[in-house]
TrEMBL record:
This is Transposase. The keyword Nucleotide-binding does not apply. The keyword Transmembrane applies. InterPro entries: Transposase_11. It holds the Pfam family DDE_Tnp_1. It comes from the Bacteria.
Length: 184
């Protein structure tokens, strides 16, 4: 006999009070397949993808002629570089600009996009391309500016090893790190 059952009958004014059961909400566990599906949706929305090195995030950056960052996009590790390039260039006036990029960005769609915006591209063709175009390799040597920027960005430990779960928090960290690079 519990303490409530001994005390309550001793109180004559409250004969209808009964001890209550603790509140237990009805929760049914998710099936394993449903949990996995929900987890994949969360990972997809957070710019984390499987590539050869495991789960990774790609940072796509646009820098000016001095190596200063202009914009960023995050994608999962499995997303090809050329899929994000036109989206990254959209917010900027690229007329009369020379867009220097590596071979991964040498798709016909991106080159046509740059030409439509009255820009010039300096992107070398890949080895397996059938219709090769000319590339000014003296101008292409200036691509080291973006490589230098990424080298400085990876000096920040929080960028090099992603600790943030949410893509927006990680992107904010990238912006803060780039501000620190600009202030040096």
């Amino acid at each position: 006999m519990g303490p409530n059952q001994r005390i309550l009958p001793a109180i004559p004014d409250w004969p209808s009070i009964k001890p209550r059961q603790p509140y237990r909400p009805q929760r049914y566990p998710l099936a394993h397949a449903q949990r996995k599906k929900n987890a994949e949706c969360m990972v997809e929305n957070q710019a984390i993808g499987l590539s050869r090195g495991g789960r990774t995030t790609k940072i796509h950056a646009l820098v000016n002629g001095l190596g200063n960052p202009l914009g960023f996009r995050l994608t999962g590790g499995q997303v090809h570089d050329s899929q994000v390039a036109s989206e990254l260039l959209e917010g900027f006036d690229i007329s009369q600009s020379n867009i220097i990029a590596d071979k991964a960005y040498g798709t016909a769609k991106l080159r046509q996009y740059i030409e439509d915006k009255a820009g010039v591209y300096t992107i070398p063709p890949k080895e397996n391309t059938k219709d090769k175009w000319t590339c000014d390799y003296h101008v292409y040597c200036e691509r080291h500016l973006i490589e230098n920027f990424f080298n400085q960005l990876k000096n920040f430990r929080r960028i090099a090893t992603r600790y943030d779960k949410l893509a927006r928090v990680y992107l904010a960290t990238v912006y803060i790190a780039s501000i620190c690079i600009l202030l040096k």
